[in-house]
Design goal:
CATH class of the largest domain: Alpha Beta
CATH superfamily of the largest domain: L-asparaginase, N-terminal domain
CATH architecture of the largest domain: 3-Layer(aba) Sandwich
Distance between the termini: 41 Å
Structural class: alpha/beta
Radius of gyration: 21 Å
Number of helices: 9
CATH topology of the largest domain: Rossmann fold
Helix content: 25-40%
Number of strands: 20
Bound molecules: aspartic acid
Length: 344
Amino acid sequence: MTKQPNILIVYTGGTIGMVKDYKTGALKAFDFTQISKKIPELQQLNCTINTISFEEPIDSSNMNIKYYVEIAKIIADNYDFFDGFVVLTGSDTMSYVSSALSFMFENLQKPVIFTGSQLPIGDLRTDAKENLITSIQIAGSSINGKAIVREVGLYFEYKLYRANRTTKISAEQFEAFTSMNYPPLAESGVHLNFNKSLLLKLDNEDEKLIFRKGLNNNIAVLKLFPGITEKIVRSYLKIEGLRGIIMETFGAGNAPTHPWFLEVLKELDENNIYVVNVTQCKGGSVLLGHYETSSVLKDLGVIDGKDITTEAAVAKLMYLLGEKLTKKEFVEYFEMPLRGEIST
Ligand code: ASP
């Protein structure tokens, strides 16, 4: 008989852990250690489930790097005792948080599956039960004693995605996430089907888990728009301690070619502030040099974000800034896939 998988649920907050107070109509957090009572179906899953909850569950809008480290530490501390991990957070910032975790863990050999829901667990038509039950199933899925998923995933509405490829696209549809530049890793219907060729593979399975927690959040996101003024863009140069900017450009990575704009980029580079070019489009890739409007950017030290999402770029910038890297190494690492976040 094969051993029952041992799953750890880490509950941080969000709608999935809320119940409606039927007298007042307000949503309030419930005691997540009582999860089996709320979802008796969990007993049908052939696995052992343990839960660790944040003492004070938070709305995911209040997520920050202190919480990223807290979640990652729970997983790292319990890594040897469990076969898989399910992390419950609010969906609003789930793509950012899960992307960050994907970078914080190197040589991950066990599934870390993020999920949440649009409706609270006790609501009629809730999506919470399916999301949670299938996430647990995925976290416990193995072949010949080896976990099938060995990366950070995000499961929502019948699809498992690579977490650092996701974006939240709807505030009300159950299909709240998409992954425009990478297909789903698994789909659940009558069967739970894994797209095995798409899953991350480790180069060396003997490597131990490395947990990196030195994130640096002295960064900014600059979304370009037609008519953006010099005063606004120049103001980034005056931000004390700023180390990097994710610059959301147009289409395939295009930006204005006004001399003042290029001059600010030059000054940012001279001030050792990294600028990463990502596209505002939900899908597709930056192609530096494809149009004249982007060919100068490379010479001004702008990093090519290729087809990375803004969410993953924010996480990667925080992560790489926390490592001691030379400028050359920084650019090299940013432009290559570290956890499958960029297509090759
Ligand atoms: N506001 C909630 C949160 O992100 C929404 C959700 O749970 O989906 O925490």
